[in-house]
Each structure stands twice: as structure tokens, then as C-alpha cells.
Specification:
Strand order of the largest sheet: 2-8-7-6-5-3-4
Largest sheet: 7 strands, mixed
Number of strands: 13
Bound molecules: pyridoxal-5'-phosphate
CATH architecture of the largest domain: 3-Layer(aba) Sandwich
Radius of gyration: 22 Å
Number of helices: 12
Order of helices and strands: HEHHEHEHEHEHEEEHHHEEHEEEH
Distance between the termini: 54 Å
Structural class: alpha/beta
CATH class of the largest domain: Alpha Beta
Helix content: 25-40%
Strand content: 5-15%
């Protein structure tokens, strides 16, 4: 059989690595994907399933999920024409790449930041203008702005709270970015429910170059259904709509999201539990020798221990605890003096307890080996 014609695939695509998550869906403590550890309550699931069974599966869904868009418009105080609902914010990111990026187009990406953005930019051949973090890994709006102005960037992308650090950009910092950027600014607020107070959404009416992305995958607890949101100036959003495939959001996802939007207290209560748990877990880790954690505001945090990240990850996995090794981000990699960082999502109180027990055990076993050695 002849070889597959790999040379016909665009070199920018061939140069990428496929996004694979080394995880196990049924791990006893699954703390590696920043999901909500709380499922949709069973009674709600059954109610939606019954309604869904009564609908026609042989018919296409709406070209765009009009009822969900109307509900979001109502809740967010933003016009329906200025809202896109996509199949997860990952899908919307690809659409934005199609709309804004091309060969040599400058795009400003502070790092470390959710890796999909750089990957999409590279696949479009865009010119990535990378901005280094401060020594505490935070992102400085002035440095981002300087890089954007110097390169006449078409697009700046920031995430707040940022993944993988959990750090936030101040509201004033975001406003400055949007007000002074030479092009469009995308603010990814995937974890915004964990940060009370003003959000970039509050700036939309004032700045037509601002785009805000949100997701149902994190605090809303619907990662399994794939729903993301893009908000922006109606004229800009209507152009971006042209690059999207029709029918991307299925009837079932729309129905579930509508039901969840009617129950905001579910999300608020769960966010409160996760925030309290994040504080408890970080406090417990601070009591253990040799562990450092990074303060952050999302449903996850960064941690480093005396063990190499890959070793720590494997030893915890043997005990049923899944965490994410993020030392592949250059800023979070091991140095000659220090090991790299891992990212830990906040789970249910029971999962967090299992994590704390496992960390203690892994570190004391490692210390014993060291003493014996
Ligand atoms: C900052 C950020 N944006 C977007 C996403 C992806 O969200 P979605 O599930 O809506 O594709 C993630 C997921 O980890 C994320 O951390």
C-alpha cells in the first residue's frame, strides 16, 4: 500500500501536536481538567431527558440556538445579535482564528496561558508576539499593551482568571487594554464565576473592539455537553457568524443549558463550596514540608513539591488522584534549583481529602527513600 499523502497537509498543521489529555474519566479523585466536580442533580437530568425524548431527533436543531441566546441576552443585558453560542469555547477559538488570523498577522499572547490559543495562531501562520509574565506569573496590562502597540497587533488574547495560574487581571487593567489596543481584544472569562465583581462584560457597550468568551464547562458543570459563549459588538459578531458552521449546538445541549440558567442558585452554592475548599486545601498544603502553592482565584491552583512533576503525577495517579503536569509551559518548567509546577483542580471535599492524604503519603515515602538512600 502506498504511503498516506502526509505532505499534502499544511505544514503549519503538521508541525502541531494533537491535543491529548492523559486522563481517566472514572478516577476516584479527578483533579486534572478544572471541571466542576458536581454533576447536574439527577431530578433535573431526568426532567430534561423526558422533555428531550418528546422532541424530534430526526429534525435539525435551529441554525443557532435562539432560545438559549435570548435567555443569555436577558441575563447578561447584551443584545441577541451580539451573542454566539458555540460547541464549547474551543470551537469558538477556531472560528476566531479563521476570522482574525492569517500569515504574519500579529497576535499578542501573554504566557503562560491556555495552550489552545497559541496552537490555533500557529496553524494560521500568525505572528505570535509573546509577553513574558512577571516574577509571580501575573500578566502586566502595560507590557501587553506595549507589545500590541509595537507590533500593531490585530488581536490580543488574555484569560482572567488565567489558566494555568489562576491569577486575575484587574478590571482597570482590562479596560486600559481595550481602550488603548490597536486592534481587537479577546477576554476569556472561562472561570469568571469564581471572581465576584465587575467583569469585561460590563465594558461591552462602550468598546466595539472587545470580545468576551465564557463557557458552560467550568462552574456551570456542563463540560460533557460542550457549550461556549462569545459576546461582542453586534456588527462584529454578525461578521464572525459567517465563519461558523451551522447547527453546531444540538437540541439537547440547548435544553440542558436553559434549565440550568433557571437555577442560578445551584451554581452560586457550588462556587461557594469550591472557593472554601480551595482555601482549605491550600492551607493544609502550607502545613506540609517543602510544598509551595500559588495564590489564585479559580477552581484550581498551582503547586510544586520537591518531587519532579512527572514522578509526582504518576505516584498520585497510582493512588487514584489525577492532577495535571503543567511544567511543559516554559515559565512553569523545572530549573536547576527548583522542580516545575503541577496544576490541581479543586474537587468535592472527599476528593480533596483523598488528594491531601495521597500527597502526604507520596512525599513521606519519597523522604524515607531519600533517608534510606
Ligand atoms: C481559559 C480556558 N478557556 C477555554 C477553555 C475551554 O473551554 P470549553 O470547554 O468551553 O471548550 C478552558 C478549558 O480548560 C480554559 O481553561
Amino acid at each position: 500500500m502506498p504511503d498516506a499523502p502526509l505532505h499534502l497537509i499544511r505544514p503549519e498543521v503538521r508541525a502541531e501536536r494533537a491535543y491529548r489529555v492523559p486522563t481517566e474519566a472514572d478516577a476516584p479523585a479527578k483533579l486534572d481538567q478544572n471541571e466542576s466536580p458536581f454533576d447536574v442533580p439527577k431530578a433535573l437530568k431526568q426532567a430534561v431527558a423526558a422533555r428531550f425524548c418528546a422532541s424530534d431527533w430526526n429534525r435539525y436543531p435551529d441554525d443557532r440556538p435562539h432560545r438559549l441566546i435570548a435567555a443569555l441576552a436577558d441575563r447578561l443585558g447584551h443584545p441577541v445579535e451580539g451573542i454566539i453560542v458555540g460547541r464549547g469555547s474551543n470551537e469558538i477559538t477556531h472560528t476566531l482564528g479563521l476570522c482574525f488570523l492569517g500569515h504574519g498577522v500579529p497576535v499578542v499572547l501573554p504566557h503562560p496561558m491556555f495552550a489552545l490559543y497559541a496552537s490555533v495562531a500557529r496553524m494560521h501562520g500568525a505572528r505570535i508576539v509573546s509577553v513574558d509574565p512577571e516574577s509571580d506569573f501575573s500578566h502586566d496590562p502595560a507590557a501587553i499593551l506595549a507589545a500590541a502597540q509595537e507590533s500593531s497587533a490585530a488581536l490580543i488574547i488574555v484569560t482572567t482568571p488565567n489558566n494555568p495560574t489562576g491569577q486575575v487581571l484587574s478590571f482597570e487593567g482590562i479596560e486600559r487594554l481595550v481602550a488603548e489596543a490597536p486592534g481587537a481584544v479577546l477576554v476569556d472569562e472561562a472561570y469568571h464565576e469564581f471572581v465576584p465583581g465587575a467583569s469585561a462584560v460590563d465594558l461591552l457597550a462602550q468598546y466595539p473592539n472587545l470580545l468576551v468568551m465564557r463557557t458552560f464547562s467550568k462552574a456551570m458543570g456542563l463540560a460533557g455537553l460542550r457549550l461556549g459563549i462569545l459576546l461582542g459588538d453586534p456588527a462584529l459578531i454578525q461578521e464572525i457568524e459567517k465563519a461558523r458552521l451551522p447547527f453546531l449546538v444540538d437540541r439537547f445541549s440547548e435544553a440542558v443549558a436553559l434549565v440550568l440558567l433557571e437555577r442560578p442558585e445551584l451554581v452560586t452554592e457550588r462556587v461557594a463550596v469550591l472557593t472554601a475548599e480551595r482555601k482549605r486545601v491550600r492551607h493544609a498544603l502550607a502545613e506540609m514540608d517543602g510544598i509551595e502553592t500559588l495564590p489564585g482565584d479559580a477552581n484550581f491552583f498551582l503547586m510544586r513539591t520537591p518531587l519532579a512533576c512527572s514522578v509526582l503525577r504518576e505516584r498520585l495517579a497510582e493512588q487514584g488522584v489525577r492532577i495535571r503536569d503543567v511544567s511543559g509551559y516554559p515559565a512553569l518548567a523545572a530549573t536547576e534549583e527548583q522542580p516545575g509546577w503541577v496544576r490541581v483542580s479543586v474537587g468535592t471535599p472527599a476528593e480533596n481529602q483523598a488528594f491531601l492524604v495521597a500527597v502526604q503519603q507520596v512525599l513521606s515515602t519519597a523522604a524515607l527513600h531519600e533517608t534510606a538512600g
